[in-house]
Every structure is written in structure tokens, then in C-alpha cells.
Design a protein that fits this description.
single chain, 82 residues, alpha+beta, 15% strand, flat
Length: 82
């Protein structure tokens, strides 16, 4: 059961990352090209890395969202006794 919930959690996490990268690209196109932070990330199932670029503020928001999601998952698991 815990492996299944862990797997489902990461599926949601990966899905969120994919949709966020599309939204970030749209925002970058609209905004003036500020200082961008670009990272090359491996895509599951591909040998070709994907380059994602974010502004400093966007990267901070994404990191904060990931931190909140992880804390929420940890609290949920603690309540379930896992």
C-alpha cells in the first residue's frame, strides 16, 4: 500500500513539473528577458536532456511549492502510521 501511494505521489509530481514547464515558457515569452536560470534535466525515457529556464522568482516559487507538497505528504504518512 505504501509503495502504491509513493508511486502515485511521484506521478502527480512529474505531471505537475511538465505542466509547470509549459506555463513557465509562456510567461518567459510574455515577460521581458530578465536574468534567467537555465538547467539541463534528463527526461525519463530519453537520452536527450531538456533545457528549462526560469527567472529567479519563478524558481523560488517552484521550490516553495515542492517543499509544501513534500511536507504535506510527510504529515499524511505520519497520520497513517507509515
Amino acid at each position: 500500500m505504501s509503495k502504491l501511494s509513493f508511486f502515485i505521489f511521484f506521478i502527480f509530481l512529474i505531471t505537475g513539473c511538465v505542466s509547470n514547464s509549459e506555463m513557465v515558457q509562456d510567461q518567459i515569452d510574455e515577460d521581458s528577458k530578465e536574468d534567467l536560470i537555465c538547467k539541463s534535466e534528463k527526461v525519463m525515457g530519453s537520452n536527450i536532456p531538456e533545457v528549462n529556464c526560469w527567472t529567479k522568482e519563478e524558481l523560488e516559487r517552484l521550490e516553495e511549492k515542492a517543499k509544501r507538497m513534500m511536507q504535506s505528504e510527510q504529515r499524511r504518512r505520519a497520520r497513517m502510521g507509515g
